[in-house]
Amino acid sequence: MKTIHFLSILLTLLCIGCSSDDSPQREPEVDPPPTDVVITPIILENYSSGQGVMMQSFYWDVEPRGQWWNIITDHLTDWSESGIEKIWLPVATKGQSGGYSMGYDPSDYFDFGEYNQHGTVITRFGSRKELETLISKAHDLDLEVIADIVINHNSGGGLEYNPYREKDTYTLFDQTHGNASGMFNRNYENFYPNSTSNYDDGSLFYEETNLDHNQTYVQDWLWKSENSVAKYYKNVMGFDGWRFDYVLGYEPWVVKAWLTEVGGFSVSELWDGNASVLSKYVDETGSGVFDFSTFYKLEEALDRFNDLTYLDKDMLWQTHPDKAVTFTANHDTEKDANEDNNIDPENKLKAYAYILTHPGYPTIFYSDYENLDFKPPLKQLIKIHNSLAVGPTQILYVDRDEYIMRRDGEGDNPGLVLYINHSKTVKRRSVTTNWKQTILIDYSNNTPFVATVDDQGVSQLEVPANGFAIYSIAELQ
């Protein structure tokens, strides 16, 4: 257990008090803590925020092909011990690209790596048996397993004449044409346009093979019948929830109907940075959504504009904290060459510090967590999130370089204060905390600075250059 002896650090405190600051006027110095006590960090495991975090367990074009389910299985114990409670798997069934497919070109919804089609038996990730082993071990570790579901477009069917498009289209899915399982066979009547529907709102992806969810046949196979995709994934394979891919490709009622039928955790990929758009979708579906509004505010604040005041803008977590699935990176943003769609590695940990202390449900990206430089601080941030990130949220101070936020805690849980510094110099600032007459230390382990809180709740906090600190109370002996 880490302890701090004041006699040994008093000189350090005095040196820190002299550190550079580019503010026009320095904050006044405060009296140092007493030197006859020993400070001990509180035991974070004694506190609970009531939720863990989700791991996105893949990146784009994972390697080596055919081994990913086994690789993930080997990580599960570490993830569970680190405070992960859900794992989001890549699309688990056979795609048109066979052993090269990341699953977003779905062909056979019931081929988890057991049928010889599209040039392979196993998927890019492995065999059905290996997937079942992964899910079983995850459940033994109390980890929920989230399925990536692509139900707008299909790929890999056979050619047939399509009278509604007056040409041949790849819309024939049967046992010899991309659907070896023989379940959920499809033809041109099940895609737009057809004899009953002509839907096209301009957002269809692979428009010739975009499923018509208005048809009873499609609804039955996707979520209603006992052998539907949803019920097979849940009852046979053991998936616990859903990540709905590209929901712009179908109407919100589809997700609502799916969840009404089978339930489970859900998060929808509605790629829109407007918080009001995301909020409307949550209200229409009851599903959580990836909080692109927060993602883009972080990118704007930390990268594009270098201005932390963008963190004082509209974000989904502010209105729907229980439905905002926050993140700093995913398989799409990291492969996108557009620099406005990803956060620079230099700023990643500050972004994670933000989402792991604010309301919302945070997602950790596999490539970040397994980065040896990021892993130790991320494990500590997850521990802080799972213990102290509770209570009402209040921004205490924000300017271009500094952002200070307070979580007030609940009951015996003390909460925390997050201090982000986007400048090249050490910063100090006095703020009003939720505590009185106590000692604060940084639980992110980024600074040895020890802060005192006066009888009015005011404390002067310090943060490293281009970094962050997360303060909470300490025990005194």
TrEMBL record:
GO terms for molecular function: alpha-amylase activity; calcium ion binding. Keywords: Calcium, Carbohydrate metabolism, Glycosidase, Hydrolase, Metal-binding. Residues 52-385 form the Glycosyl hydrolase family 13 catalytic domain. SMART domains: Aamy. GO terms for biological process: carbohydrate metabolic process. Its cofactor is Ca(2+). Ca(2+) binds at N152, D212. The keyword Calcium applies. Its EC number is 3.2.1.1. It is an enzyme of class 3 (hydrolase). The active site is at D245, E269. PANTHER family: ALPHA-AMYLASE. Belongs to the glycosyl hydrolase 13 family. This is Cytoplasmic alpha-amylase.
